[in-house]
Design goal:
18 strands, Rossmann fold, alpha/beta, 15 helices
Length: 399
């Protein structure tokens, strides 16, 4: 507030309130589907609604009985979809340009935000351009990197070309790390802005630790419990988790390995490592307890755009051993709250794992520092940052 004196009249000037935006958010994945895109996007949408924006969520119908939700400030529009090859529990949105043009003509949004680049996302982009609506986008999945793990590496360049064209047709693209921003701009992406991912620090915290849960894994207070969380799939580089487990057992007599998640590699991993605990899918408080009850988080993936599990582990007081990429590069401090090794240097990864098995007190010391690094990643703060970027893309609206 400022006070302006004009002759003998005192005028109080208050800053103009921020406008309530009508936002249309387009995504091909949404809870109860469990993946980093659906979970983080749902938290962002909650944060935007809490900031008094009206959100229209456009997504594929997940089941035949799926019903669109609608309540104050939030509504869903369900589109046609089909199962994704190799990911049958997920849906790929089918093209729907005509339906979107009709919906947005009847109820025009102030801005369209596209979270995924599938057929539904492309239709949304084309419909928004036809109606001259401002569009922003997220880059959330390294599809071009995944191609190497599924035997179609020759598709990498066409995928990159499509993603570059898609995102450069939007007013800005949001990415979660500075490193990813530099990588994308290096291959011709434009208007790339960094927006970190949040973490629920109330849910994920060291107080969720359970000695009863540890005992169910066969662990004692002297055990080193290793945890890996995520989809059990080729692109996650889980062979290195098993190799690290073997390397640590060669040094320390009592090491346990726990997997949380499911996927096409589960059966082969169980055959390869029958000593491991396979917990399947875990959610909410149960997942938080599994994080907090372990001792060291192993994250060997090099294909992540962020890796939400990294910050969830840190918030739970669980130090991380990872390659220096994605979220780990930004939030893990080497020999502080975890350990980083150069990307794709498997030998260094295994060497550090062995050293930690020989000096378990280093793991305990890192656990004490793990949470402090990510305490600032509150979802309301992230929603505020995204709101600022939305407003900046709308020249007729003053932030």
């Amino acid at each position: 507030m400022t006070t302006v004196h004009s002759d003998q009249i005192v005028v109080e000037e208050y800053p103009a309130p921020r406008p309530s935006l009508r936002l249309s958010v387009v995504t091909e994945t949404w809870p109860p589907e469990i993946n980093g895109v659906s979970l983080t996007l749902s938290r962002l949408v909650q944060g935007l609604c809490a900031r008094n924006h009206q959100v229209q969520l456009i997504r594929p119908r997940q089941t035949r009985v799926d019903q669109a939700l609608s309540h104050s400030g939030y509504e869903e529009v369900l589109m046609r979809g089909m199962p994704i090859p190799r990911y049958p529990e997920l849906k790929l949105g089918l093209p729907g340009k005509r339906a979107l043009i009709q919906a947005w003509t009847l109820k025009r949004p102030d801005l369209v935000h596209i979270a995924t680049e599938g057929p539904l996302g492309w239709s949304a982009l084309q419909a928004a351009r036809r109606l001259r609506l401002p569009v922003t986008s997220d880059f959330r999945t390294n599809f071009h990197a995944y191609s190497e793990h599924y035997g179609v590496g020759w598709l990498r360049e066409p995928i990159v070309a499509y993603l570059r064209k898609f995102h450069n047709l939007t007013r800005l693209t949001m990415v979660p790390t500075q490193a990813l921003r530099a990588d994308l701009m290096g291959i011709g992406f434009e208007n790339v802005q960094v927006v970190a991912r949040g973490v629920d620090t109330q849910l994920f915290n060291p107080g969720q630790r359970s000695e009863t849960l540890r005992a169910s894994w066969g662990a004692t207070p002297r055990s080193i419990v290793l945890l890996a969380v995520g989809r059990l799939a080729a692109e996650k580089n889980l062979d290195l988790v098993v190799r690290a487990f073997d390397a640590m057992r060669a040094v320390h007599a009592d090491v346990k390995l726990v997997f949380v998640g499911d996927g096409p590699l589960r059966e082969s991993l169980q055959q390869r490592c029958p000593q491991a605990v396979f917990g399947g899918m875990r959610r909410h408080e149960e997942l938080a307890a599994w994080y907090a009850s372990a001792d060291l988080f192993l994250f060997p993936s090099v294909t992540e755009t962020f890796g939400n599990v990294t910050v969830e582990a840190l918030a739970s007081g669980l130090p991380v051993l990872a390659f220096s990429t994605a979220a780990a590069a930004d939030w893990v401090r080497h020999d502080g709250n975890g350990w980083l090794v150069d990307v794709n240097d498997d030998t260094a990864y295994l060497r550090v794992a062995s050293e930690l098995a020989a000096q378990p007190q280093r793991i305990a010391q890192a656990s004490e520092q793990a949470r402090a690094q990510v305490a600032q990643l509150d979802w309301q703060q992230i929603a505020r940052q995204v709101e600022d970027l939305f407003l900046q893309t709308m020249p007729d609206v003053t932030p």
